[in-house]
Structure formats: structure tokens, C-alpha cells
Design goal:
The chain is mainly alpha-helical. It has helices at 29-32, 43-48, 65-68, 70-81, 94-107, 115-128, 145-154, 163-168, 170-180, and strands spanning 9-10, 58-59, 86-91, 157-162. It is built from nine helices and four strands, in the order E-H-H-E-H-H-E-H-H-H-E-H-H. It starts with 8 loop residues before the first strand and ends in a 7-residue tail after the last helix.
Length: 187
Amino acid sequence: NYLNQHPDIFMPTYNQDGMKVKEPRFLIKDLVQQRLHNGVWNFEEYQSLFTDVKDEKSIGESTVLYLYYYKHAIKKIKYYLGEDVRIIIMLRNPIERAYSAYSFASRTHQENQTFKEALMNARKRFDEDNTLSPMILYKELGLYYKMVKAYMENFKDVHVVLYDDFVLETNLQVRRVFNFLNISNVN
């Protein structure tokens, strides 16, 4: 949302049919298409997300699961976008992230176990039911080290933001992202 407000940044918000697209997920479609209801599943539709680009200096999209599926995503990023891209990763406290995902899954009736049970059973359930969202991998999604390391080893421009820092110092963190993107700060 903060990036989308900057005049030099283009982030797609709607697809060609006028449907809201928060996370296209295109670069990991092979892994998540049958598990997730929303996403952009073909290259033409993915390209169409960017047809309204004018003269913005930074063009991007945000898909949270690119971090978890880093091996696949990195290959696809290089294939479709090249190696000269800038990667921004925001990391949330893994415990808070896990419980937030659990709460969401419970509210949307995707989860019917206690948090403790869900943590213990997530991988088995995920492997046995190919319709469950990766969101239920509560613990695994927060094991960031290998994920972040892989991005840093594969791309020269990687910027990591800690969510807690973003909450405490939003303006400072946004300015740092703008600096990373080599665009001017706006007031």
C-alpha cells in the first residue's frame, strides 16, 4: 500500500477483468494453483497486470509465498524478469505470523484444531490434502534463514525490513525502501 502511493512506483492492483489482485502468485503457480483460489495462472494475464505502466521507475508486485517457495520463485524470477531485479522482503515475528495465519484460517473455517494441534499436524495435513492452503504451514513459513539467504545469494539487490521496525518507525522504513529503489522520498 505504501509503495503504491508513490508516483514513481507501479504495483498492480487489478487484473484485466477489474478483479482486485493483491498477490498474483504467478511465479509459483505450479506449486499453489490447486491449493489457492486466487491468483494469476498464465503469462498473458500476468503481463496484463502491467499494461498501465507509464513512466514509473520501479515496477513490481508482492506475493508473500515467493519467500517460502524460494527455490521455485528464484528460478522463475530469473527466467521471467532476469537477475537485475530488486527484492524487498518483510519479515514478521515468526510466532506472531504463525498465530495470525492460524486465526485467519480458523475464522475462514479452514482450521478446526487448537493452535497446538495445528502446529503439530500441519505438515502431515498439508501433504495428505492437496486442497489445503500453504498458509497452514504455520511453523515452516516462519523459518526464514534459508529463504532469505537464498535470495541474498541469488540477487545482488535484496532489502530486508523487519515488520516490528516498520510498525515502530514506519516513515523511516518507507524512506529506506525508497532509497533502496533509488527513487525520491515524497511527503
